[in-house]
Amino acid sequence: MGCACAFLATACSGASGVLAGAGSEDCDAACDATARTPGSRGRFQVPGPAPTGSVTSAGGRVSRLVFAVVGDTRPATEDDTSGYPSQVIAPIYGAIEALRPRPQFVVATGDYVFASGRGGQALPQLALYRAARSRFSGPVFPALGNHECTGATASNCGSGAPDGVTANYSAFLDTMLAPLGQALPYYAIRVDDIDGRWTAKLVFVAANAWSAEQEAWLDAALAVPTTYTFVVRHEPASATVAPGVVPSERIMAQHPYTLALVGHTHTYRHGPDAPREVLVGNGGAPLTAKSYGFAVMALTQDASVAVDMIDWQTGATDAAFHFTVQPDGSPGGVTAPGN
């Protein structure tokens, strides 16, 4: 068994009972296909020393920051819970667990369901997501997506908001955020260096639950000084019809931040048009381009943040996607891809 197959076998082990309709034969077939894929470079391992310390649902203190980012995960058709992409998202979380060193936590960029709100399918779909997510032993911090409101990009949920408290919105709060001790769809998580050399925060924006209260909160949250700041929001800056995108971008422009982590479009992307925005939307929803997988972000020896995209089947990095940034989001030093 080659490296790519060893990676997939680790991700698929124990898959029966987690994958919807997929058993070991599915993993074997995928492994065979991977072995025949030209240019497969073997599984990615995070370069550098293994961190010490830990991160819980309340944050933590570590010697080095290493985390993964997972994008949109939902069925292709509304209320089609039987078509939920467990066969993609479960191996993704298994692959994250198999990385060495293992990422300390996962950030999820939204859209875990495709449910009408009439058929009661949000809770069953979230249960499938949580079953897949259980393959990873660390905390997962989710952002709210438009499908956790009404499904429309322009939707705005919450008490007093135009779309009110929908079944999807309530299911997200109760199933994904309440176990983390979070009562609101926007929140911040602090992770600092054990020895006090750097500080970091993750600020989760709910662009589909936008309000004056969230606007004031975001300004205050970003004003807290930290070495690294990662803003997590479902929609990218280009999705201006989402109620919270334009106002949150305006607030972000007034404060320093390292990267904005977004989803919504079912691919992955980082480009010169938005150098501080990293789009990760390839977590199982119907792809618009490229392949399924997840991103890994890790501090390097020169204090920059290295970003890699990992293919869900081969475990190989996309060399064209690899880049580094300084704490202020400016381009980092030149480093080789992780493997």
- Which stretches are poorly predicted, pLDDT < 50 over at least 5 residues? 1-41
CATH overall fold name: Purple Acid Phosphatase, chain A, domain 2
Number of domains as seen in the coordinates: 1
How large is the share of residues in beta strands? 15-25%
Mean pLDDT: 89
The helix-strand sequence is: HHEEEHEHEHEEHEHEEEEEE
Q: Quick one: CATH superfamily? A: Metallo-dependent phosphatases
> Structural class of the secondary structure composition?
alpha/beta
User: Globular, elongated, flat, extended or rod-shaped: what is the shape?
Assistant: globular
CATH architecture annotation name: 4-Layer Sandwich
Work out the helix count.
7
Write down the Rg.
19 Å
How much helix, percentage-wise, in residues? 10-25%
CATH C-level: Alpha Beta
Strand order of the largest sheet: 1-2-6-7-8-9-11-10
Q: Describe the oligomeric state of these chains in a short phrase.
A: single chain
Alpha carbon gap, first and last residue: 19 Å
Largest beta-sheet details: 8 strands, mixed
Count of β-strands: 14
Blueprint (SSEs and pairs):
Blueprint: H1 3-12, H2 24-35, E1 53-56, E2 59-62, E3 66-70, H3 86-98, E4 105-108, H4 122-133, E5 140-142, H5 167-177, E6 187-193, E7 199-205, H6 212-223, E8 228-233, H7 245-252, E9 259-262, E10 268-269, E11 277-280, E12 293-299, E13 305-311, E14 323-325
Parallel strand pairs: 2-6, 3-4, 4-5, 7-8, 8-9, 9-11
Antiparallel strand pairs: 1-2, 3-12, 6-7, 10-11, 12-13, 13-14
Helix pairs in contact: 1-2, 1-3, 3-4, 4-5, 6-7
